[in-house]
């Protein structure tokens, strides 16, 4: 299934659903950031996905990271709560979701990089390479918040 992210776009379709999603900002011991290149929109992103019944938010983040990257991680804190109604995600089946995502900071504890059905590339990316990387602005915002050293939890 393909997706298109709209942000602050007056021509965006109207949201018709909302789902709880999680994402994880992870840096290795060299300070590089774990990014995937998504199969559904061809953009780079921090790993993440939808909460499933029977799991906690932190469990969902750990599962999504493992599924999309092959990396095992431990969640350490919340970076932000993102629910901006100006960000909608349109899927080719007609669903248009309003953003609702909890972004966690996590650290890697094992595993090795691999792709999945949801990630066509998985890489550790240096902060200096982020500007040259095709990342949606809402994900850039999460990365920016994660890299700020003295920020409280961000929320919209």
Structure description:
- This protein has a 5-stranded mixed β-sheet, with helices on both faces. A 4-stranded mixed β-sheet has the order 1-8-9-2, with no helix packed on it.
- The mean pLDDT is 95.
- 29% of the residues are buried.
- The protein has 2 helices and 12 strands.
- The chain starts with a strand and ends with a strand.
- It is of the alpha/beta class and 156 residues long.
- It has a single domain, classed as Nucleoside Triphosphate Pyrophosphohydrolase (Alpha-Beta Complex), CATH 3.90.79.
- The radius of gyration is 15 Å and the shape is globular.
The oligomeric state is single chain
What would CATH call the homologous superfamily?
Nucleoside Triphosphate Pyrophosphohydrolase
| Rg of Cα set | 15 Å
| Major β-sheet annotation | 5 strands, mixed
Could you name the CATH topology?
Answer: Nucleoside Triphosphate Pyrophosphohydrolase
DSSP summary, beta strand count:
12
Percent of residues in beta strands? 35-45%
Cross-sheet strand order for the largest sheet:
6-3-10-7-12
Helix content: 10-25%
Shape: globular
The assigned CATH architecture is Alpha-Beta Complex
Unreliable stretches covering 5 or more consecutive residues: none
Q: What is the first-to-last residue Cα distance?
A: 28 Å
What is the SS-derived class? alpha/beta
Would you tell me the overall average pLDDT? Answer: 95
